[in-house]
Amino acid sequence: MTDFMHFDEMFGTGDTHRESYRDYHHWFESQDTAWLHRKSDEAETVFRRIGITFSVYGEEEASERLIPFDVVPRIISSREWSRLVRGIRQRVQAMNAFLYDVYHRQEIIRAGRVPVALIADNEAFLPQMIGVSPPGNVYTHIVGVDIIRTGENEFYVLEDNARTPSGVSYMLENREIMIQMFPELFARVNVQAVGNYPKNLQRSLGNCAPRSCEGTPVIAVLTPGIYNSAYFEHAFLAAQMGAELVEGHDLRVVDGRVAMRTTQGYAPIDVIYRRVDDDYLDPLNFNPQSLLGVPGMFDVYRAGGVTIANSPGTGIADDKAVYSYMPDIIQFYTGEKALLKNVPTWRCCEPDALRYVLDHLSELVVKEVHGSGGYGMLIGPTASNEERVAFRNKLEATPSKYIAQPTLSLSTTPILTKNGLDPRHVDLRVFVLVAPEEIHMTPGGLTRVALNKGSLVVNSSQGGGTKDTWVLEE
Amino acid sequence: MLGKTADGLFWMFRYLERNENTARLLDAGFRIALTRAAAAENEWASVLTTVGVKQAFLEKYERMETAHVIDFLLREQANPSSVMSVIQTARGNARRLRTALTRELWSATNECWLTLRELLARPVRERELPFVLSTIQQQNALLGGTLHGTMMRNDIFNFARLGTFLERADNTARILDVKYYLLLPSVSLVGSSLDNVQWETILRSVSAQRSYHRLHKGDVRPREIANFLMLDLRMPRSLAFCYSKIVDNLTYLAKDYGLRQSSIDQAETVFARLTDRSIDEIFESGLHEFIQDYIRDNNALGRQIEKDYRFYG
Questions:
Q1: B chain contacts of residue A238, beta-carbon cutoff 8 Å
Q2: B158 burial via Cβ count (<10 Å: 0-12, 13-18, 19+)
C-alpha cells in the first residue's frame, strides 16, 4: 500500500493508518468501492453544472475545464495545523514589515542583510510605491503560502504568493461537494469549518479601508474579465461578499475617488480587491498600453482615497530570489528564527551557486525567478537530455533569472483509483488574510495533487487535481 | 447595480425569449411542411423573414428545404440568431453577471446550455425535431420558473423582465408584420381551407391555439385573431400585454431609484395606443403601418432604456 520512497500522510511509512486518518479510514474500509466511484462521477456532474471551471492560457474560450477532484480528503491534525499557523503568521508579518521597509528607509539593505541589487535590480520593485503607506501598513491583504511536507515533522514553505493568489474558491467548493456527497462523514469526523472565508475576507478588507472612509466600506472585486483563468473565482468571491464584480471599463476617477458606473450614476468605492496584475491597474501610472486599467486610480490610491488589495508592488516580497532570503528577512524584522523552513535554494546569480547548479542539473529543480504556474521550470531528474541542454544554455546566458532547489520528496496522500487507494504527491496552499490588528488563516486550504503516478507537478494546468483538506478539531 | 450588469441581464433575457420564439416558429412551420408540402417553401420564407435571417439563409442555400431551414435556425454557427448561437451568447452573459444571479438561476442557465449543446451537436433529423423543440421550450420554462422562484424582486429582476417583454413584443409584432395580409378583412376568403391553416399557424406560432379556441368556441376569424394578438390584455404574448408589463417594470424601477426617466413616458405612449382604440379603428387607419410603427417604437424604447440606465458609457 505504501510507497516507501515517500512519507504518506495516511499510512506514514508503515502499513497502518496514522492517527489523524483513523476515523476516515475506518469509514472508508466499510464502503463499497464501486459506490465511491459513482459518487466521484456525481461530484464531477455537479461541478460541471455549477460551472466551476478554469480556462487554460493560450486556448480558446470554449476550453473551460474542470479541475479533477479526488474524493479522498487530505487530513491534518489540529496539532500540525497550529504549528503551521504559528510559522505562517510569523512569515506574513515579516513580509509586510519588509515591504514597508523596502518602500521607505530600506534599513535591511543598510544593515547589509540583503544585497542592494536584490531590490534595485528587481523588476518586481515598483518605484511608484516609494513612500506610500497603505492603511495599517498592510501591503499583502491576501496571501497564499504554499507548503510541502517531506516527513512526520518536516514542513517547508515552497513559495509565497503575495500578489493575487488564487484557488480559495476551490477550497470552498470542494468542502461544499464533500458535504453533499458524504454527509454522514461529517457527523463522524469533527472537521473545522472553512465556510466563513468570504465573511472573513470582507471583514478583513473592510478593516483596511481608507482612514477617511465613513460607514460600511464599499468593496468591489476587480477582474480582468471572463477570459481570465480564475474568472470563476472572482465572480464567486464577489457574490459571496455581496460586492460588485467590476472590470476596468466600469470604473473611473470621479471627484478624487474611484467610482463604478451604476444604473444610477457613478458610486464611489472604498476597497478594491483587485485580481489584475500591477501592470494593468492604471495606464497613466503603469503600463500605458493597458486597456484594462483605470486612468488615475493610482493617484487616488497614493492620496489615500481608496485601498487597493493587495497593494501594488508586493511582488518584491514573493519573487524566488527574495524567497531565498526569507529566513534572514524574518530574523531581521521579528528578531526570531524562522519557525517554518525554506527549501534550500541556490541563487544562480552567484558564481559558486551557478557552478554547482550546472554540475548537478539532473538532481535539481530549476525555476525562473519571476515564473509561476509550473511554467518555465526544469525538473532535473525527469527531464530529457535535450531539455537539460536547453536549460544549461539559458542558465549560462542569464543566470540571474534562475534559482535552483533540490528535488524534495513531497509527501503523498492516497487518491481513489480503479484499484482502490493509491498514493499521489500533494502540496498545500494556505490562505492568509491580513488586517491591521489581525492575521487570519482558514483551517486547511487547497490541497493540490499530482494525479499522474510518481509526478511531482501539482499545477492544474499540468495534470493536477484537488482534494478537500480537513483540519481536525482538537 | 452596475450599468454593465443591467445591460447583461436585459440582453440575456432577450436572447432566452428569442430562442423560445424560434422554437415556436419552427414548430408551426414544420407542421405546414408536413401537411402541405406545396405551401412549405412559402411558409419557411416567412419564418426566415420573421426571424430576420432570410438574406443570410439564401447566401448559403439556394432553396428553402426543410432540412436546411431546420439546421440554419437551430445549429448554424454563422447565424447569430440560431438557437445554438443564442444560448451560447445568453450563457456568456450569465457568466459575466454571475454575481447578480442566484446560484439556482446560474445553474439552470448553465444546464440549459449544456443540454442544448449536446442535443444540437449533430444535425437534427426531422423525426427528432418535435423532441428537440419541446426540450428547448422545457429548458426555457425551467429558467423562467427559477427566475420567479429564486430571484429577489429588485432592479435586477426588473431589467431581466424588461428584456423578456421587449423581445416578446418584437417577436409577436414581427409575426404580425409578415402575416398581416392574411388578417385583412378585404382579401380574406373566409372559410377557404388554406386560410384556416394559415390562421391556425399564426396562433400556433404564439402558443395561442388553445386559449383562442376557448375564447371563441372554435370560430376562427382574422379580425378576432388580430384583436387577440394585439390588444387582448389576457394573452401573455399580445402587444398590449407586453407593454403593460414593460410599463410596470419601468414604474418599479422609477420607484426603486426615486427617479422617473424618459423611457417610461415612451412606454406609456406606446401602451396608450394599444388601449385607446379598437381593432376596427386600427384596421381603418392601416394595420401594416400600425405594426411597423410599433416595431420602430419598441426598438427606440430599447435604446432609451440603455441610455437612462447607463448600460454602456
A1: 99
A2: buried
Q: Tell me the per-residue pLDDT of B84-112, one tens digit each, with 9 for 90 and over.
A: 999 999 999 999 999 999 999 999 999 99
Q: What angle do CA A260, A261, A265 make, to 5 degrees?
A: 115
Which of A51, A185, A6 has its CA nearest to residue B98? A51
* Rounded CA separation A110/A235 (Å): 44
Bridge-based pairing state of the strands A265-268 and A257-262: antiparallel
Which residues 136-165 of B have a C-beta within 8 angstroms of A? 155, 159
Note the pLDDT tens digit of each residue in A10-20: 998 777 899 99
ipTM for the predicted complex: 0.85
Q: Are β-strands A420-435 and A142-151 bridged in parallel, bridged antiparallel, or unpaired?
A: antiparallel
Contacts of A155 (CB under 8 A, 6+ apart): A83, A84, A87, A147, A148, A149, A340, A341
Q: How far is CA B80 from CA A5, B300, B304, in A?
A: 57, 22, 24
Nearest to A418 by CA among A91, A40, A19, A21: A40
- Note the pTM of the prediction, 2 decimals: 0.90
**Class assignment of domain A344-406?**
alpha beta
Three-class DSSP category at A204: helix
Query: Considering only CA atoms, which of A208, A144, A189 is closest in space to residue A171?
Result: A144
Q: What beta strand segments (E) does chain B contain?
A: none
Work out the number of other CB atoms within 10 angstroms of the CB of residue B133. 21
Q: Does B65 touch chain A (CB under 8 A)?
A: no
- The residues, ordered by sequence, that sit 6+ positions from B291 with a Cβ below 8 Å of its Cβ are B173, B176, B177, B180
A373-423 per-position pLDDT tens digit: 566 789 888 889 999 999 999 999 999 889 999 988 899 999 999 999 999
Written as one letter, the residue type at B192 is S
- Which residues of chain A make contact with B257, given a CB cutoff of 8 A? 263-264
Domain map (residue ranges) of chain A = 19-337+409-471, 344-406
Q: Are strands A154-161 and A265-268 parallel, antiparallel or unpaired?
A: unpaired
Residues 77-96 of B with CB under 8 A from A: 92, 95-96
